[in-house]
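Hi L., both proteins are below.
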Amino acid sequence: MQFDFIVIGAGSAGCVVADGLSESGRHRVLVLEAGPSDRKLFVQMPIGYGRTFHDPRVNWRYRTEPIPGLGGRVDYFPRGKLLGGSSSINAMVYIRGQAQDFDEWEALGNRGWGWRDVLACYRRLEDHAFGESEHHGARGPLRVTDISKEAHPLCQAFIEAGEQTGLCFNGDFNGASQEGVGLYQITTRGGFRLSAARAFLRPAMRRRNLRVETHAEVTRILFEGRRAVGVEYRRHGEVKRANAAREIILSAGAINSPQLLQLSGVGPAHLLKSFGIEVVVENAAVGRNLQDHLCYDHVYRSAKPTLNDELFPWRGKLAAGARYILWRRGPLSLSINQAGGFFRTSPGLQRPDMQLYFSPLSYEKTPPGTRALLQPDPFPGFVTSVSPCRPTSRGYVEIRSGDPSAPPAIQPNSLSTEEDLAQLLAGARFLRKLASTASLKAVIAQELRPGRAHEGEDELRADIRARAYSVFHPCGTCRMGPSAAQCVVDERLRLHGLAGLRVVDASVFPTLPSGNINAPCLMVGAKGADIIIRDSC
């Protein structure tokens, strides 16, 4: 099969890339996705991500190596394996990041990736509930929903508690400033999840020049010399090959993109040779620089009703289901991360360095290995959480063998720096400060975790190492930058030392943006498509 462009992976970035490359109708585009279609009930229903969280049909369900900073624990890394990728199984929170995040990208040698450039890209993507402004776009494919009319009433107690600690109310974390407390915006439309597949790929699939194949797992990128010319993939037990006349775009994500490069002969030479893989281009940076946001929870039994009271009893489940079926409203139409914010752990900092989450639901009694959000605790409960915005720990992704079906080794090295531990400790102290406000004291019946046995700093440090977990924002493993020795792609997302191949996904992030990263993934997809089209003229 011969195409102009082959896109590997129909995740957040890949869907946007496919849409952009096929839009003119001049180019033949093939999209290869390892997983199935996204047309499943628990994918389209927003709170259904509790069911897809461990579903092997739509989730790679990766596990990390034992992490020293977490006491040798193994952490869970869910990754979407279906059309829409992780945007089809995530919590849908829409956060673009801070302007300084992207100005830093540009300062690292990536021209055209500063805030002014990426903001224009964001605005073009958005159909924002707040309408068009200097901060937001309208009439774009991606609906960004305001949940203020649907959020649980307990969110207001959290917001008031934040204000009582000295934080300001922020009605728009994607506006002029990210700092403060408020409600999160989410990517839904008409009560359904608006994944990258629904917003970008499915409309593009009406075009005759775009072909999408599901259950198509790419096993190798094919080279002639140092030019990528095609891919080999498995589909329904059959090995197939497709050729690209122009370029191959690797959009398999922060885990699978470096894995596929290494399997194809691009990466650390010693690693590839140890598995008998012929080295096409040696690049020690492939798979390094793994970054991720870590999260730490305080869990409370509530003195007032929470979502547990609605979603635990069968009568409540049926009522919530009926409300959703009839009107596409209620808790099933939302994320559980309804409120939150950003704050500075030290007054001397120039910008927020910590993210807050508030969930009016708890699932402490849920069996280990599951996250059944429709099976919350049998008592009213809620969760407050902190997540450092820009951690300094760095990890890696590397293949374990030459077998494409073998999951790679993932080592995030979480809490490997004292700075990261100190930040989470400051976050834990802030959660206690929140809990001591008049607003939250009025609704807290008991602190379940970490509990009053963890009052001192040593006890809190131990609890952080015992319970902190990934918030599922891996990136950076094919870092963008001018140095071929330290980076994988250049500012135009081309592989250093290779032709005909680009990486367009979260793996190219030089540094981790502040907040949830699905919005930056979509932006990179759109900007990547623009760059490829301009370079192809």
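That was the first. Here is the second:
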Amino acid sequence: MKKNKLTGIIANRYLSFTIILLAGIFIGWLVFHPSKVKTETNGSPAEESAATIWTCSMHPQIRMEEPGKCPICAMDLIPLVQGGSASIDPDAIQMTEEAAMLARVETTVVSRHKPTREVRLYGKVQVDERQLQNQVSHLSGRIEQLYASFTGETIEMGQTLARIYSPEVITAQQELLEAAKTKSIQPAIYEAAKEKLRQWKLTDEQIAAIETSGTVQPTLEIVSNTTGVVMERLVNEGDYVSRGTILHRIADLSKVWVMFDAYESDLQFLRKNDKMKFMLKAYPGTEFTGTIAFIDPVIDPVTRVAKVRVEADNRSERLKPEMFATGVVQSALSGYGNELVIPRSAVLWTGVRSVVYVKQPGSDEPVFRMREVTLGPSLIDGWVIKAGLTEGEVIVTNGTFSVDAAAQLEGKPSMMNPSGGAASAGHDHETMSGTGSADMDTEGADHDHGTTATTGFKQAAGTSHAEFRVEGSCEMCKDRIETTARSVHGIKSAEWNIDTKQLHISYDKEHTNIDAVKKAIAEAGHDNDKYRAPDSTYNSLPACCLYRE
């Protein structure tokens, strides 16, 4: 029965044709499909070239076709992002919007300004030396009464300061009374007796009072010949004094001096008769004005500063001697007109070269390329650009170190590797605790840039970099710290950030080390993460440089 059904199905002519057609299609697919796949694979070299390249985040010269460990530091390799638009400069670094936002990259348009240097100085209010007088005793004797008895007391001209018992003056009074009896017969002797008392600074009124009373006064008054404040009291009641002994130092504070410390680099921007604004900690938010009356022609050999004197009116008596003051002078740069000015944070300075990162126009995503520039004078928050930029270009002003680090990882031209390339420089990272960077979210490190062979292993030592914290508080500190660091043999560059307190140095590892730099800076008066400055050196710093609580 079953055999008859099968025979009937096969005998069906249409069904037979269908089975033969399906079998032919299946056999054709088995024969031709593998060769087609192979042809398509072999004919797509672009897809093969797009294979992922693996590199080391610490040693960007390493290039591997497969993931694994870095042959230098044994760290896990990371994929290297490649590709991008064909119109992008091959030496430029391309970032996504998200990456630029995470790195806090900010840009600014290059523009022209009239360069003005804001010079900030630090100093103290002091007594006008011309308004300071010594009140002395004009006769010898014992102080019976002292009326101006404490420092800070206000004295008026003609006010009695003390009463003195003097045997010499008593004898002279007796001679005057005797001479007065015969003044009509011997007027010369009478005048000589009066003149003798005048030599002891007795006034004609006092002499007349002695003569009228006919009695000898046992004590005489010492009166003030000025109006002011007692700055110093040098005697007590009962003291014996001789003629010319200083009793009090009295200062008229209606006019005062504000003495500022100026470094050599600031002197070129300061001129006599310039107006200066200054602020006092005692009156926050209040500005005072004065005129530069004197600039010391000699630099102090210890503090390396020159004194700048500003004269200020003080009839309101708000300015007290020894108050701390911060002065600001706006000085136009002579010889410079409408110049290109960029923010200070945009410049990466290696000691030899100065570079910025310029944004490439015409791209949807942030694309930056390193460019060397020639710097002019330094401003308080920027630089004058002599060459390398044009007006209207867009440059990175925040997150510059992050952009430079990304360029180094991709083997593009960067601050320490201007030619770019994968095998041009290596990084040997020596981690240091307690350090940080203003623009990178990583701990500070000592970067050793050495030349490498094609294998990626270091062959010779080169320039190293380090960042560590140094305490300070002002521009004078910045100049002292950087100058001290550069004075160490082997240091190529040094830059201290006044906001983050981080010192970035470039140095030759064969000639010096970080410890030597830290020790030298401490000896100059600035604490760091390893050494504390000697108290004697720290206490000799200008007042504005004192940073310890």
